[in-house]
């Protein structure tokens, strides 16, 4: 149900003052080169690649790695992305990353210009791996992780030097994982839209696989955190449950296939799978706000009144995130950054800002606004709010620092990332053993290899402070799922600065 926000006079004045601050905040920079930031945000994914690197690899300090992944289980699991600054391939965040890269292309690909080709390569690097991970779906098996996180996190090694355990983890009928399987189905379905006209055969393969994986996820319901607790917790433990991923997957399958069965599944399971819960949460663990925004487009276009409750939820999401309207789950730092409790705050900033922008566009096309008690959320206001978050990331903040490596004059130098912080193979051809890398981890020196485009976790408190230090991983570690939504945001603002 929509959150009906009624503001008292003092609260409304507080909102108005905050809004004026946001609208007129003096920019620290004269403006931003969103095209340059877009190029770098996509380039970052090349630094996260696992497996055999292609001839057109642009970040040349990276080399081939993990070329035998899956061999112990008799399957080829090479490729894909390392999720963050470690050398593990976690399927859950990788699938979400792929979904968001795909959504970025679907909604904003027309404004990517010459970077569209690189964005498509980033999507395909993810889907090629997800196809491998689901290659045994006919036997009721999905591979969801490669690498033992405890072994990996006990070392500070380049991915090219890895000698830690490359254990393969899977889910099956007896050990379900509807969350990771559902997200994988969503990623494959979303990517099938991306490639529908560009590579029809590949698109069909992705969609057919998505259908099969979703059927598996729905038939064998359960959280992968229960089946694989030691391997995935506390790293990517799904504390939110698997129900949202089932709806999320069905929503993308509906969008990709236009088949009635998915519409009926969504409507039939809306209450059972708690579509209205936590309306302002969105990320690798919680899909609720994303489901509501995605399905609302159908309602706003006048095509699907059966999804009306999702639009009510999406409107409630918008109202809950406006600055000046008190909500316990969403706050703003003094510098204007969206702040949510927990680590790696930028993941919330980019994901929620993406939804603000996407919904703004849907509202614009339908000539609609969102009433929020004493104020009105117009498409222009939502675009401004999302742009303010992007500009904060790029340097319009109290520290005057870009949180994107390689963008601007002042950015993080000591990011929590093994490959970036250790000498490259070209500079140091000899093997660097597990514990031998500790000296580089503890060094106060800047990282020798620039992971261009990487956006770090950023401030995790409401004082806008940032320690540029590797041990402070919640602030200094980049992740693929921070960057993926940012690709769409930067695409739009590169054409609409």
Automatic annotation (TrEMBL):
EC numbers: 3.2.1.4
Active site residues per record: 416, 468, 477
Keywords recorded for this protein, A-Z: Carbohydrate metabolism, Cellulose degradation, Glycosidase, Hydrolase, Polysaccharide degradation, Signal
Top-level taxon of origin: Eukaryota
Gene Ontology biological process terms in this record: cellulose catabolic process
InterPro entries, sorted: 6-hairpin_glycosidase_sf, 6hp_glycosidase-like_sf, Glyco_hydro_9, Glyco_hydro_9_Asp/Glu_AS, Glyco_hydro_9_His_AS
All copies of domain Glycoside hydrolase family, residue ranges: 34-490
Molecular function per GO: cellulase activity
Enzyme class, spelled out: hydrolase
Catalysed transformations (reactions): Endohydrolysis of (1->4)-beta-D-glucosidic linkages in cellulose, lichenin and cereal beta-D-glucans
Residues making up the signal peptide according to the UniProt record: 1-31
Record flagged with keyword RNA-binding: no
PANTHER family reported for this sequence: ENDO-1,4-BETA-GLUCANASE (PTHR22298)
Family: Belongs to the glycosyl hydrolase 9 (cellulase E) family.
Protein name: Endoglucanase
Organism: Lupinus albus
